[in-house]
Amino acid sequence: MSTEVLHLPGQNRYVFKKDGEQVGLTDYTLRGNSIHITHTEIDPHLRGSGLGAEMVQSVFDAIRTDTSYRVVAECPFVVDWLGKHPEYQELELRG
């Protein structure tokens, strides 16, 4: 199984693919130097498989590597995920 995250800046969205097929998405809005994660979604047939957590981690890795944005978690799933992954909480403190 291979997964990848693709950034679609024109749609304010990251798309999560498994074996080449879209299985999830993460929507955001930009405000100044902040990226507000507003919504995440995994294909209902795949929920509970851990793909949501894998998607959020992949999106955060892309934000960390490709941007200097400060992350503001508004999606409840992302808020919960961040609480369990302190190694990513520094993204909430960026300048």
Account of the protein in words:
The chain is of the alpha+beta class and 95 residues long. It has a single domain, classed as Gcn5-related N-acetyltransferase (GNAT) (Aminopeptidase, 3-Layer(aba) Sandwich). It is 26% helix and 38% strand. It has a 5-stranded mixed sheet. Strand 1 and strand 2 form a beta hairpin. The longest helix has 16 residues. The N and C termini lie far apart (36 Å).
In the CATH hierarchy, the architecture is: 3-Layer(aba) Sandwich
Q: What would the CATH topology be?
A: Aminopeptidase
| Structural class computed from helices and strand pairing | alpha+beta
| Residue share in β-strands | 35-45%
Distance between the termini: 36 Å
Structural Rg? 13 Å
- The share of residues in helices is 25-40%
Number of discrete domains: 1
Describe the main β-sheet briefly: 5 strands, mixed
| Name given to the CATH homologous superfamily | Gcn5-related N-acetyltransferase (GNAT)
Q: How many DSSP E strands?
A: 5
Spatial arrangement of strands, main beta sheet: 1-2-3-4-5
Give a quick summary of the entry.
The protein has 95 residues and is an alpha+beta fold. The protein contains 2 helices and 5 strands. Strand 3 and strand 4 (34-42) form a beta hairpin.
SSE blueprint and pairings:
Layout: E1 3-8, E2 13-18, E3 21-31, E4 34-42, H1 51-66, E5 70-73, H2 76-84
Parallel strand pairs: 4-5
Antiparallel strand pairs: 1-2, 2-3, 3-4
Pfam families: Acetyltransf_CG
Domain N-acetyltransferase: 6-93
GO molecular function: transferase activity
Please supply descriptive tags for the structure shown above.
five-stranded mixed β-sheet; 95 residues; 2 helices; alpha+beta; Aminopeptidase
